[in-house]
Amino acid sequence: MSAALEQQLRAAFGRLPKPSREASARARSAALAALGPSERRSASVLVLALAAVAFAVGAGAAALAATGNLRVDIGARRKPARPVPTRLSVPPGSHGLALVAGGKLWLATRNGLRIEGMPVSAAELSPRALYAVVGIGSSLVALAPGKRHPWVQKTDGRVVAASWSPDGLKIAYVVARRGGYELRLIEGDGFPDRSLVRAVRPVKPSWRSDSVAVAYVDAQGRAAVYDLGTASRRTFDTRDCGGITRALAYAPRGRRLAVAGRSGLALVERWDTRPGCVGYGSVETINAVGWLSPQTVLTLDTAPPRLSAVSVLRPYRVGAGTIEPLESAGFSKKTLGAIAVSPASGRLLVAWAAGRRELELGIDPSPGDLLLRGGLRLERRLLRVRVPAARVSVSWR
Known about the structure:
Strand content: 35-45%
Shape: globular
């Protein structure tokens, strides 16, 4: 290339405009004009001219990107991941949500009550999340926003679980006492407080839908029910269906009680009828049980860490005195810590380990499709906190 041609190219580059919609076309014209008539253009000169055009347009794009006026993406465009909130919010259609993990509480209600990271031993929201009760030290404390009056009840021990009755008038709670655990009952306004059963297991009680009876686990690991109307107790020995009771839950309507052992699920429906039972010789352990609907029970099973980190959500169909597992189950590669079903819409809230010392909350909006999908579909993530994913419980109203 001659020196005169190089000077003409440099002059052409200097006359190039700043990038715009027509920048590429105008740059090409300017460069080719500097080369002269087409019959004098060699292949090497054309390559140099095109490279110059590319450089001019690319340099202008880089300058615009540096000023924030242009975004440059290389390769396939990916949808940016939505950041997981670090502050708990109330899901649409809900009144409140409470999470206890690693001995700390995160709570948010629609009426303005908010707690983040407070040390507690247990927590439970009242119906419509108007109040919350938490175990703090050796006391049961009721919290409420606005002008509603809170109260404190001395328990002489650590509260390990609490359950608010559906009518909002009573709270059954389990307190650690010297030599064991005790089931107690307190009115929603904090008085009176009395003992129901002296020796029980540290399992969260479950209220019947009419708020007249409460289920618990006795000291021998059997499912039992205390009837407030008759001040009587009945015991159901379901230990031959999966072993000692680990969790229990009343159906949202009616009198059906689901009782989960380590490797089996029992259904208690009538006093005078033998409970239905589904047992399986699996290495997984049932850690939680809940009702997706009056006809569908869901258990959360986890495998021992030495074998697998997989968690399994197993649905069961409930009929007249019968309970049977559905054909498939929903598997999750996440280690699930707790589940809760929204009482209003049937959505499923899931807590899982997001790292060695992190926990996340998310919602599956259609858990009834677990069988079709073969796993969870967590469309909305509510919270991510730095806390061990151990001793997790959730209350969703």
